[in-house]
Amino acid sequence: MTSDNHTFDRRELTGPFDIIGDVHGCADELEELLGLLGYEVEWSGPDVAVTPPAGRTLVFVGDLVDRGPRTPDVLRIAMAMAEAGTALCVDGNHDNKFARWINGANVARSHGLQASADQMAGENPAFHARVRKYLAGLPIYLWLDGGALVVAHAGLKEDMIGQSGGKVKSFALFGDTTGEVDGFGSPVRRNWALDYRGDAAVVYGHVAAPEVQAVNNTWCIDTGCCFGGRLTALRWPERELVSVPARQVWFEGARPLSDRIR
Ligand code: MN
Q1: How many domains, in total, are found in the chain?
Q2: Ligand 1 mean position to 248 CA, how many Å?
Q3: What is the residue range of 56's domain?
Q4: More exposed terminus of the chain, fewer Cβ within 10 Å: N or C?
């Protein structure tokens, strides 16, 4: 295994893709959204099989876990589809921290990790092992469709496309942080998308807002489902948005969803 890249270069995959924003344990909404996109979800006890519409591939922007009520089931869906070769997922900052927690690191159970820990307590060691292995293999971002599409959890700068290493990983996980913290205790971020001029479309999540933020060939599709917003998919290459409303507010953010645009 080389550095931290985990095969981000998947330009040979041409889709079509259905790219899903931050799920954060909201399995009810994920199942509903998959249904709208034409995927068939069949549970058999704890096992799940998901059948995509012919030829389509699901891509998660990361942050599968934390805050919502069904993190293990979201992982079951993502892992079953990964094993069947019908879904890809990039690493998100929550998945990354959850992976450190499940591998025994002493991390703060803040920002919704406590909910995941409580839910995972009901799962057996074999499931824990499967999750550890799955999360360890997530790529830092994905470069798809002949180079025309990038999926990265918090976005990616043009000069980072095709690159790997610690700086690229940090940007893909956390975005363009300044190192400062705002009055809500959240990292101060620059909006890198305003300066993006790349030919590749960049689809990302991480910063929840009530509406999809489409700027300069970039799409932020985190519409804050766990905060009571919506779960959104971007269909590629159609560039169509499909979303479902949250069933409820699953997690109270430090600030209102409407203020989270930045
Ligand atoms: Mn997130």
Answers
A1: 1
A2: 17
A3: 9-215+226-256
A4: N
